[in-house]
Specification:
With about 290 residues, the protein is an alpha/beta fold. The protein contains nine helices and 14 strands. The chain folds into two domains: about 130 residues, 3-Layer(aba) Sandwich (D-Maltodextrin-Binding Protein, domain 2), CATH 3.40.190.10; about 100 residues, 3-Layer(aba) Sandwich (D-Maltodextrin-Binding Protein, domain 2), CATH 3.40.190.
Length: about 290
């Protein structure tokens, strides 16, 4: 009995020590796992010699096809060319996966792609689930509305009851819905589909990025639409999206973006596609929106 009691005490002691060791080891394993995650994406990309980037190909002037041919050589835009230059400076090939904005973040999580570049805003909520580079574009939000009456919208509060054209998961749709608008979604449709619907009254407004909206409106002068003359709100920062924990890849891309900023490449590309330096913060007063959980 004494021997049995001794063995039982010894067993409890071993289990207790194992439990303490397990907690400590788990901490180390989690730290190591984090390090492994942070290194593995970059190591995987280096081994392949290629980085795979998601983009839509439908977003003038960020990501679109030049001309009527939808092939890799015709794909261009500010985001596309920034990412091409990053890959070049990192001595990597690059391929683009064309998909809708609502599919890009899930595709990063699944490992189908390495990064996403499609005028994606780096919000606090998204940063909890993904790594983001430093911004390569600064902007703000505005609205495309009908020329004749601004679609009946003179303030953000006037979005109540209006129909907004946009993606299901975009920040812009969240803003419109925050003020009471209903969002009509399109999948990976071209700009023309969104803009035509405002023109013909199927929708009332497109809440979107200033630069993208400006070029979209200019591309279709026959439509009765324009940028809202008075509303500028929600300053934004756009960045490269990467898997959560891909810290080495993030560091490499940030170093490259800083080089491109320092040598003027970002400014050159921004002015080429936007006729303005979108790589720098815009001047003037831009309304902040309270109560958004982005």
């Amino acid at each position: 009995m004494k021997k049995l009691g001794f063995l039982l005490v010894l067993l409890i002691a071993v289990v207790s020590l194992s439990a303490c060791g397990s907690n400590s080891d788990n901490g180390n394993e989690q730290d190591n796992a984090s390090e492994d995650t942070s290194d593995s994406k970059w190591a995987e990309i280096q081994e392949e010699g290629e980085i795979v980037a998601a983009t839509s190909g439908t977003l003038v002037a960020a990501s679109y096809y030049e001309g009527e041919e939808e092939n890799a050589d015709a794909l261009t835009g500010y985001d596309v060319e920034v990412m091409r230059e990053i890959a070049k400076r990192l001595d990597l090939d690059i391929s683009f996966e064309i998909m809708g904005i609502d599919s890009m973040l899930p595709a990063i999580n699944s490992g189908r792609i390495d990064v996403a570049v499609n005028d994606i805003e780096a919000t606090d909520k998204r940063k909890e689930k993904f790594n983001f580079s430093e911004p390569y574009k600064y902007s703000y939000s505005t609205m495309v509305v009908r020329k004749e009456d601004n679609s009946g919208i003179e303030s953000l509060e006037d979005l109540e009851g209006k129909v907004n054209g946009g993606g299901a998961t975009t920040i812009y749709s969240q803003i419109a819905e925050h003020f009471g608008a209903e969002t009509k979604t399109y999948g990976n449709a071209p700009n023309e589909a969104y803009l035509r619907d405002v023109h013909n009254g199927r929708t009332d407004v497109i809440v979107n990025d200033y630069y993208l909206s400006k070029f979209g409106v200019a591309a279709f002068p026959e439509f009765d639409i324009h940028l809202h003359p008075d509303l500028k709100f929600h300053p934004t920062e756009q960045a490269v999206v990467m898997p959560d924990g891909a810290d080495v890849l993030t560091e490499k891309i940030n170093e490259t973006l800083q080089e491109m900023r320092d040598d003027g490449t970002l400014t050159e590309l921004a002015e080429k596609f936007y006729n303005e330096d979108a790589s720098k913060k815009p001047e003037g007063e831009i309304q902040e929106i309270e109560g958004l959980d982005l």
